[in-house]
Structures are given as C-alpha cells and as structure tokens.
Amino acid sequence: MGDAIPSVSSDRPPTRASADTSVDMAAPTSAGVGPARPRVAAWRVWLRTARPVTLAAAVSPILVGTALAGYQGAFSGRDLGRHWLLFAITLLAGVLLQVGVNYFNEYFDHRYGLDTAQSLGASTVIFRGEMTSGQVFGCGVASFALATALGIALIALVGPAIILFGLAALLIGYFYSARPFALASRGLGDIMVYLAMGFLMTWGAYYVQLRQWSWVAFAASVPVGLLVTAILNMNNVRDYQDDLAVGKQTLPVRFGLPFGRRYHAALLYGAYVTTTVFVIARLLPWPTLLVWLTFPLAYANVRSVLMATGRKAYITATPRTAQLHLLFGVALALGALVATLAHV
Fold first, then answer.
1. CATH for 38-342?
2. What predicted TM-score, i.e. pTM, was given to this entire model?
C-alpha cells in the first residue's frame, strides 16, 4: 500500500524535508531542480506514478482466495461464466484500489513535506513538474471511484455484505496516508497492510464466490498477509534514514534498523512456517506445500538483508520481496488447483 506516512501536526516546527519545500505545495516546483528534462509522454508519467510493480500485492491475495473458493466447490456448477465474471471484477477492483492508494500516498507525502526530489519511495513527479498535486490527487479519487463502481456491481451480483469489504478497503486505503488518522504515522502501517492486503482481499475474493465464512480462506490469508507486510517493511528499512529525519514512525524507526532486518526475516520465514502448520492442521490441502518451491528466493532475500552493509542491498531487496509475494501466491493458488483436480 505504498510507503508509510506519519502525521505531522500543523503547529510543529518544519522538518528538514519540509524546510526545502514551500508551504503551499499545490503548484509543481521546477525551479532549482536542475537542467530541463526531455518531455515524457503523459501516459508514461501517470503509469509510473501508479507504481505498477506494487500491483502484484493486489493480484496475489485475489488469486489465492479465488483458487480456494474453487477448491471448496466454486466453478464446478453450471454458473461457470458467472464465477469467472466475479473473479475478473474483484481482481480489477483490487488493482484499482492499490493504484488509488499509490496516488494518494504520492500526494500526501508531497503535501505534508515528507518527500524530497531525491526520495526513493516516491516517483517525485510533482517535484519535477510532470504532474501537479491536483492531478495526482485526482487520479487517486478517480481510481477509488472506478473501484467503487465495480464494488457496486459486486453488491448487485453477490449481496450487501460486500459493502463492508468495500468500505473497509476504501477507509484503510485513504486514511493510511491522510489526516486526521494517518494510520501509518501511529505505528499502524504494518497491521493495516496485513489486514487490507492479506485478510480482507483473500477472504473477500473467496466470499464473492461462495458467500460464506471459511477457515481455509482465513488460513491462506495469514502467509499472504505476512509477505505483503514484508514488502512494506522492506520499504521502511530502505528509507530508514529519510524517515528518521522527518519523524516517520515506522517500526524500523521506532525500534532500530537491526530490528527491521530481523523482522523482515521473521515475516518471510513465517509465511512458510504458517502454511506448513495449517497443512498439518488440515486447514489447507497438502498440495499448497508447493509454496516451498519458492523458499530459495526467500532464503537468498533474507540472507542479503541480514548481511547488508549499505542501502543498496535494501533497494534491491524491495522489488525482490514483491516478486516473492507474487510467486508465493501463484504457488499457493496452484496448490489449491491441484488439490481441486486431485480431489484431496
């Protein structure tokens, strides 16, 4: 869900980052940025600001939830086309929510003076004058509006319970960055990402297919949630010095960089341990142990982070963690598919 954003009270002295930017952030700042840059096509700028690399965070839980719904009987009747339609709408809505969160994150980081033109966690399009702050905010609103329209379609097809999923996702996504709650600034970024991108998305994708509670879907949401939280934590470890300078209260800032590295290892390894425990407890079918095929990637990831001596290792570990999250989800979904076909 993007990088964590702390709350900065209006009566607080300006931070080092905000001192370099004007109080009114509505207009792009082109002065002092350096020599003129070649003009970039507008669609490329908008796509980059949507942060497409992060969109896998929405794809993985929806794949897993849908596959487990298939394991428990969806896609087996005469309404096959309807089930595929529900999957497509859910997937598109989830991706649009993530796009909206990324745009809002970009906007509020700039507005609150928490980013600079050199910030690694932002696309810095506003600083470069490629988009205005109003355009970035408008893209966030448009993405949420489209996701809401798809949610209304799901309500019509599935029932009013979808309202709860949609409201929770919209509120967490917006107030993750925005005041007055600024959830991430209160040390709640990790748990909010876990709940929204792990539990809610996995179970939500399951629910639209079968309209019932499932401990199987809950069990699968745990490792998926741990890995998506690891993506956020790796962002925070990477941005530790910057966040410390402006008072972002991420967990690595609160407890130190060594904690952030060990926490990363616990999240990655925890995904495999919990999957295995749930298989032993017969909450997940045994073919879901296919996720262990991705363990070498997790081991190499953790080893590089624990042995890191500079920021470069954290920069490369962030997209690798996102890739691991996607591959783990695909393996988990494939395991559920194998279990469905083999009737185990």
1. 1.10.600
2. 0.86
